[in-house]
Each structure stands twice: as structure tokens, then as C-alpha cells.
């Protein structure tokens, strides 16, 4: 975390420099470009659209934009995908007492709450078309009318939106208003996926370790070996920083105060529950999975089972099968297992697998 924000933003104080360094971790070229863009666009009042894959850190980028904006008001966030459509209008624009069943009090919406600050609309691509039209009017008039109210309230906020969708494609198929798209897509910030900045993984883990040591004590934090870091850097990370955080959390629980070796790292990355839920993971036929009854009988007939050895045997069998199906071609076998070629080669060396031609 050697980048000093004071060197790219004259308005940054030493305290903000430290807070921003903890928010946006990494010194890769992709992160350096992103930080420079944030410093340039933050002071402007123009709308910003943050785009990037799920789990890459779009909300963190928004926090940095708000921190550097100089606006005295709060950062108010709304996840448009997490709130039911029939409740989102009231959440955004507020309501008067008696506006609908259950509206027992007057309530300002998130737009009003962001007065003088920043309104962050996450996953704006999921906003219903009717609300898109109302949001457009608020942006054009700078006034909001609560549900059930007659008064138009003047508002002043900076809008930041985020989405993992291609909004231009959503416009083309009629799911997103073209006029709203042009109104919010004035300045764009692109957040790189973790695979595009894998050199930042050690720094990200160091930041997670620092926070964990404060929470749990220095003796409880896991340690990551060079071999583990090498495997992490070669991983595809479909869930991006969020997936890395899941792996770290699991490591902290399973290996408190211990060093994480290569085998441990493989096991942590192979746990299905840690994979991003929206990643496209291949699903094999149910018959190809180990039979539960057979496994129970095997455990009943043996005093113990070395889990890592058993998983390693399965890994060897899968790699050898992929090589056989692809006539020994490492690149094609790696693709069939959703691995990078370099990761495949490393696994083959580690597991002493030689049946390959390239």
C-alpha cells in the first residue's frame, strides 16, 4: 500500500490518504490507473457509473469517490436488486403519512437522505422501468416528490451508479431507458477483476491479516507460504476479491496460527461453498460423483481416512482423465478443467503426472 493519494489528489489530507489506502489495496498497473481516474473525477459533480464483475469492489470504489468529492453530506447506498420492486419507490423517494397501508409516519427517502452528499444506486440495471422514469425526472429537475405528497422538495446530491450488466445491451433490448442511460453514464470507472491484477493478491491478504490480527489477536492469524501465494496468483477467481475474502475467512477458521501450504491452499480453493454463486461452474453428471453409501461403507471398514490424500487421488484421476480425453494436450486438458495452463503444469509436477505431449 505504497501509493500516497496526496500525490495524485491535491485535496487529500493525510488522514484520508490512510483511509483510502485501506479501501483500495494494490499497486498493480490496473489499480494505479483506477486510482488516478478516481482522483480526477471525484471532485466533479457529474454522475459516475462504476462497472465491473461481481465481487470486484464497486462499492469500495464508490466510497473512495465520495471521500475525495469534498461533499459534506453522507454517502447513502441503495441496492436496487435487493429491494422488492413495490417497495423500492418508497425507499428511494420517501412517503407521507397515510400514503399507503402501513405508512404510519412521514419518511424521507434515500434521495433526500443523501442531501449534500452522494447517492449510490447499486445494481441500477435491476431497477423497474417505471422507477427509471421517476429517477430521470429527479435528476433533471433536482426535485423529489414523496409518495402521497404534493410538495416538491429540492435536492442536491452526486449520483454514483454501479452494475455488473452491460447497460448498452439492456437499452438495446428495451429493459433500460436510453435517456436515463445517457443521463447517468457521463463518467465511467471500470473496476478490474482479481485475475487482471493477481499481483495484488499478497497485498490484499496482508490487509485482511492486519484486520484479523486486531480482531482475533496476532497468534490466531494464519500465515500464507510462498507456494500458497503462487497458487492463489494462478487461480482464475470468478468471485474476485469477495471470493478471496471467503478463502481467507475459511483459512482463519481451519488453520488458526498455522502456515498455509500448497495442499492447504488447493483445498481452500476447491471448497464448493466458497465459489462465487454467479460463476459459471461446470456441473458433472450426478453418477460421476462419489457414491455416498459407498463412502460410508468405506469409512466403516477403515479406522480413519486421510482426507487430503483422498482428495489428491481424485485430483490425479481427474487430471489424467482430462489428458487422456485430450490426447495428452496440456492446454486442452487445462481448459476442460477450467484451469490456466501454467496451473495445470504446476499441478502435474506436484503430483508427478507425466502422460502429456505439450
TrEMBL record:
<keyword id="KW-0238">DNA-binding</keyword>
<keyword id="KW-0902">Two-component regulatory system</keyword>
<dbReference type="InterPro" id="IPR058031">
    <property type="entry name" value="AAA_lid_NorR"/>
</dbReference>
<comment type="subunit">
    <text>Interacts with sigma-54.</text>
</comment>
<keyword id="KW-0547">Nucleotide-binding</keyword>
<dbReference type="Pfam" id="PF02954">
    <property type="entry name" value="HTH_8"/>
</dbReference>
<dbReference type="InterPro" id="IPR003593">
    <property type="entry name" value="AAA+_ATPase"/>
</dbReference>
<dbReference type="GO" id="GO:0005524">
    <property type="term" value="F:ATP binding"/>
</dbReference>
<keyword id="KW-0805">Transcription regulation</keyword>
<protein>
    <recommendedName>
        <fullName>Nif-specific regulatory protein</fullName>
    </recommendedName>
</protein>
<dbReference type="InterPro" id="IPR025944">
    <property type="entry name" value="Sigma_54_int_dom_CS"/>
</dbReference>
<dbReference type="InterPro" id="IPR002197">
    <property type="entry name" value="HTH_Fis"/>
</dbReference>
<dbReference type="Pfam" id="PF25601">
    <property type="entry name" value="AAA_lid_14"/>
</dbReference>
<dbReference type="GO" id="GO:0000160">
    <property type="term" value="P:phosphorelay signal transduction system"/>
</dbReference>
<keyword id="KW-0010">Activator</keyword>
<dbReference type="Pfam" id="PF00158">
    <property type="entry name" value="Sigma54_activat"/>
</dbReference>
<keyword id="KW-0804">Transcription</keyword>
<dbReference type="GO" id="GO:0043565">
    <property type="term" value="F:sequence-specific DNA binding"/>
</dbReference>
<feature type="domain" description="Sigma-54 factor interaction">
    <location>
        <begin position="24"/>
        <end position="253"/>
    </location>
</feature>
<dbReference type="InterPro" id="IPR002078">
    <property type="entry name" value="Sigma_54_int"/>
</dbReference>
<comment type="function">
    <text>Required for activation of most nif operons, which are directly involved in nitrogen fixation.</text>
</comment>
<dbReference type="GO" id="GO:0006355">
    <property type="term" value="P:regulation of DNA-templated transcription"/>
</dbReference>
<keyword id="KW-0067">ATP-binding</keyword>
<dbReference type="InterPro" id="IPR025943">
    <property type="entry name" value="Sigma_54_int_dom_ATP-bd_2"/>
</dbReference>
<dbReference type="InterPro" id="IPR027417">
    <property type="entry name" value="P-loop_NTPase"/>
</dbReference>
<dbReference type="InterPro" id="IPR009057">
    <property type="entry name" value="Homeodomain-like_sf"/>
</dbReference>
Amino acid at each position: 500500500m505504497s501509493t500516497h493519494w496526496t500525490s495524485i489528489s491535491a485535496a487529500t489530507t493525510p488522514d484520508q490518504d490512510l483511509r483510502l489506502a485501506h479501501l483500495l489495496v494494490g499497486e498493480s498497473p490496473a489499480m494505479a490507473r483506477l486510482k488516478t481516474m478516481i482522483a480526477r473525477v471525484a471532485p466533479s459533480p457529474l454522475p459516475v457509473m462504476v462497472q465491473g464483475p461481481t465481487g470486484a469492489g464497486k462499492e469500495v470504489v464508490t466510497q473512495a469517490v465520495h471521500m475525495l468529492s469534498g461533499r459534506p453530506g453522507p454517502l447513502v447506498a441503495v441496492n436496487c436488486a435487493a429491494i422488492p420492486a413495490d417497495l423500492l419507490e418508497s425507499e428511494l423517494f420517501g412517503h407521507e403519512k397515510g400514503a399507503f397501508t402501513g405508512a404510519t409516519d412521514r419518511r424521507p427517502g434515500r434521495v433526500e437522505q443523501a442531501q449534500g452528499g452522494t447517492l449510490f444506486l447499486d445494481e441500477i440495471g435491476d431497477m423497474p422501468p417505471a422507477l427509471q422514469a421517476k429517477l430521470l425526472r429527479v435528476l433533471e429537475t433536482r426535485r423529489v416528490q414523496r409518495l402521497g405528497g404534493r410538495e416538491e422538495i429540492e435536492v442536491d446530491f452526486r449520483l454514483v451508479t454501479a452494475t455488473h450488466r452491460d447497460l448498452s445491451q439492456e437499452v438495446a433490448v428495451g429493459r433500460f431507458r436510453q435517456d436515463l442511460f445517457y443521463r447517468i453514464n457521463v463518467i465511467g470507472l471500470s473496476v478490474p477483476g482479481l485475475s487482471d491484477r493477481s499481483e495484488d493478491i499478497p497485498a490484499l491478504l496482508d490487509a485482511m491479516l492486519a484486520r484479523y490480527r486486531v480482531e482475533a489477536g496476532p497468534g490466531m492469524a494464519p500465515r500464507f507460504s510462498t507456494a500458497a501465494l503462487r497458487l492463489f496468483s494462478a487461480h482464475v477467481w470468478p468471485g474476485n476479491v469477495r471470493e478471496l475474502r471467503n478463502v481467507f475467512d475459511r483459512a482463519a477458521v481451519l488453520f488458526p496460527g498455522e502456515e498455509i501450504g500448497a495442499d492447504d491452499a488447493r483445498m481452500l480453493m476447491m471448497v464448493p461453498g466458497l465459489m462465487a454463486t454467479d460463476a459459471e461452474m461446470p456441473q458433472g453428471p450426478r453418477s460421476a460423483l462419489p457414491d455416498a453409501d459407498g463412502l460410508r461403507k468405506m469409512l466403516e471398514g477403515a479406522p480413519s481416512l486421510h482426507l487430503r490424500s483422498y482428495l489428491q487421488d481424485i485430483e490425479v484421476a481427474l487430471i489424467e482423465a482430462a489428458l487422456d480425453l485430450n490426447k495428452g494436450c496440456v492446454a486442452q486438458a487445462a481448459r476442460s478443467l477450467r484451469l490456466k495452463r501454467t496451473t495445470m503444469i504446476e499441478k502435474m509436477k506436484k503430483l508427478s503426472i507425466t502422460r502429456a505431449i505439450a
